[in-house]
Design brief:
218 residues; mainly beta; 16-stranded antiparallel β-sheet; 18 strands; 0% helix; elongated
């Protein structure tokens, strides 16, 4: 984000943008005001001792917009950010990054609602895949499904362990027609054959389901 203190040289004279609004005795921006920054971004809202502080709206040249709370010139507290690609975040910020509880709507319509840390999905949260209607509900670590969670589909669901976005370890499938399949995911090596003779085969590790017990539900 641009800062009001940034300037560009124009014939040796610094250009700090345009400002209309309140000032304090030291002539600092203080109170409510509107500023046009050197790069064309526009901020309208509250200031304290020359910095954005309190509630305000910041409009970027690229079409993005933030409306919410500032502290000492950076996003901090509750606010909504509209991104140029059409995605939207509604929630809490800490030191200019998404942190705390928040809801993110992605360009394709997918939605994540839950905990964030350092701009990543982290903690408890739910992700909805709009195309299929499936959901993941559980733990996230550094942006990936991890530890324990549940994948919910149209006619069945999987509950169990996850590691780096993939099912891992013990788990169970519960089907709507009345049975429960218990087992575990184990990592196995899978060889991916190349599309042409000039490329080499690639070995990857993928989780493979191994059933241990099939239980009819009452």
């Amino acid at each position: 984000m641009s800062s009001d203190e940034e300037s560009v040289e124009d014939e040796g004279v610094p250009y700090l943008g345009e400002y209309e609004g309140d000032r304090n005795e030291e002539e600092e921006r203080h109170g409510k005001g509107k500023a046009k920054l050197p790069n064309g971004d526009v901020y309208e809202g509250e200031y304290s001792h020359g910095k954005r502080h309190g509630q305000g709206t910041y409009k970027f040249q690229n079409g993005a917009r933030y409306t919410g709370s500032y502290m000492n010139g950076i996003k901090h507290g509750e606010g909504t950010f509209l991104y140029p690609d059409g995605s939207k975040y509604e929630g809490y910020w800490l030191n200019d990054v998404r942190h705390g509880r928040g809801k993110y709507t992605y360009p394709n319509g997918d939605i994540y609602e839950g905990e964030w840390a350092d701009n990543q999905r982290h903690g408890q949260g739910e992700y909805t895949y709009v195309e299929t209607g499936s959901k993941y509900r559980g733990m996230w670590v550094h942006g990936k499904m991890d530890e324990v969670g549940e994948l919910i589909h149209a006619n069945h669901r999987y509950s169990g362990g996850f590691l780096q976005d993939k099912p891992s370890g013990k788990g169970k499938y519960v089907f709507d027609h009345g049975c429960e399949m218990r087992g575990r995911y184990e990592l196995v090596e899978v060889v991916l054959e190349p599309d042409n003779e000039e490329e080499e085969a690639i070995t990857v590790v993928e989780p493979k389901w191994k059933i241990e017990e099939l239980v009819p539900l009452d």
